[in-house]
């Protein structure tokens, strides 16, 4: 209706959890995601493996499951995460794109999720190699947000990494 005031945030369903996250927290979590994906693609130099593992708490876990929920891979703790990074296929020619990030406070820190598309950029034109959904539990440690648990569930018809 012309001249009427726009709805305020209280008219939006369940904004209370999101409102508890400060802008600084949201930006820090966004930076964590960017570091994770740049490192998983080997774009942070010779120590990309350690930088990727460094996005997790020292006892953090990464789990990869297929669309049926069957375990494909799992790593827990910094050393195991660094080792897991070394098994990722085609690091130099893969680019990960994440989108539709949902982030909200919960009783244990922050729960988050996002879509992921992995592209094979070593061919022309680039092709989609995998898709899925990340679900995360993040905690703040020493003023930094880190993944405590990160699970990638591959979409149906998305091939398992080889």
Task: Give a written overview of the molecule.
The protein is α+β, with helices and mostly antiparallel strands and 162 residues long. It has a single domain (20-154), classed as Nuclear Transport Factor 2, Chain: A (Roll), CATH 3.10.450. The chain has helices spanning 16-19, 23-40, 48-53, 78-85, and strands at residues 56-65, 71-76, 94-106, 109-120, 127-141, 144-154. It has a six-stranded mixed β-sheet with strand order 2-1-6-5-4-3. It starts with 15 loop residues before the first helix and ends in an 8-residue tail after the last strand.
Summary of the model, kept short:
The chain has 4 helices and 6 strands. It has helices spanning 16-19, 23-40, 48-53, 78-85; strands at 56-65, 71-76, 94-106, 109-120, 127-141, 144-154.
> Structural class per helix/strand content?
alpha+beta
How is the biggest beta sheet arranged?
6 strands, mixed
- Residue stretches low in confidence (pLDDT < 50, at least 5 long) are 4-18
Based on Cα principal axes, name the global outline.
globular
Examine the secondary-structure arrangement and name the CATH architecture.
Roll
Top-tier CATH class: Alpha Beta
Approximately how much beta-strand content do the residues carry? Answer: 35-45%
Q: Count structural domains.
A: 1
Number of helices: 4
Helix content: 10-25%
Distance between the termini: 56 Å
Q: What is the β-strand count?
A: 6
Radius of gyration: 18 Å
> Could you please say which CATH topology applies here?
Nuclear Transport Factor 2, Chain: A
Q: Give the averaged pLDDT, no decimals.
A: 89
Strand order in the sheet with the most strands? 2-1-6-5-4-3
The ordered string of helix (H) and strand (E) elements is HHHEEHEEEE
């Amino acid at each position: 209706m012309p001249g009427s005031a726009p709805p305020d945030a209280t008219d939006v369903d369940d904004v209370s959890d999101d409102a508890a996250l400060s802008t600084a927290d949201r930006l820090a979590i966004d930076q964590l995601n960017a570091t994770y994906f740049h490192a998983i693609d080997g774009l942070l130099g010779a120590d990309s493996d350690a930088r990727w593992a460094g996005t997790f708490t020292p006892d953090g876990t990464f789990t990869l499951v297929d669309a049926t929920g069957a375990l494909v891979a799992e790593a827990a703790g910094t050393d195991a995460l660094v080792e897991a990074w070394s098994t990722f296929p085609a690091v130099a020619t893969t680019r990960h794109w994440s989108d539709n990030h949902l982030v909200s406070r919960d009783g244990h820190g922050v729960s988050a999720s996002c879509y992921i598309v992995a592209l094979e950029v070593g061919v022309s034109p680039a092709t989609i190699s995998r898709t899925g959904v990340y679900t995360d539990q993040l905690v703040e440690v020493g003023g930094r947000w880190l993944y405590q648990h990160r699970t990638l569930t591959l979409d149906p018809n998305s091939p398992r990494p080889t």
